[in-house]
């Protein structure tokens, strides 16, 4: 967009205050009009959450994660005109990120360990070494079990149990019926519960 100032055409620049006070939904609408400032603001607001979501979902190294985050926001820009507000903007972005992750798995035809994404577990002060080792072993077991889940079950678990997204929003983000989401979540939780029980005495 342009504006006139004393007969000259100058680029129209929105003040950062306008962007900072704007809702996510308005930013998406502005993205649909290819407003670069709106896209930058949307990225600034949600890039960390999308990065964390993909790290939990994919367990990929930082190079792949950055690439997938970038792809997620490019896809969001392309599909902004189709956003209908059935879920929050953050959950909508998670849905796009889940699709990006699904394509990444198909393209790479491999799965990676979740241990890097979850980080090393450090014992809390005063914790006994054997308890810290048990806790670390349990985290490894759960992370490994999560990595072995089919992608759809993993996406349901990460969205609902780790990102604490509501069932309705998660179903909308993954484009499935609530009953389908519930079944996937039940199967994921059952598999992970079994993994935890294997390491308990």
Number of helices: 10
Q: End-to-end distance, in Å? A: 66 Å
CATH class: Mainly Alpha
Radius of gyration: 21 Å
In the CATH hierarchy, the architecture is Orthogonal Bundle
- Note poorly predicted spans: 1-5, 9-15, 109-121
The third-level CATH topology is Rna Polymerase Sigma Factor, Chain: A
Major sheet characteristics: 2 strands, antiparallel
Note the topology.
Elements: E1 2-5, E2 8-11, H1 16-20, H2 24-32, H3 36-58, H4 62-79, H5 89-108, H6 115-118, H7 129-148, H8 151-162, H9 167-174, H10 178-199
Antiparallel strand pairs: 1-2
Helix pairs in contact: 2-3, 3-4, 3-5, 4-5, 5-9, 7-10, 8-9, 8-10, 9-10
Written account of the structure:
With 201 residues, this protein is mostly helical. The protein has a single domain, classed as Orthogonal Bundle (Rna Polymerase Sigma Factor, Chain: A), CATH 1.10.1740. Helices cover 70% and strands 4% of the residues. Strands 1-2 form a two-stranded antiparallel ribbon. 29% of the residues are buried. The model is unreliable at 1-5, 9-15 and 109-121 (pLDDT under 50).
Comma- or semicolon-separated keywords:
201 residues, 10 helices, 2 strands, disordered N terminus
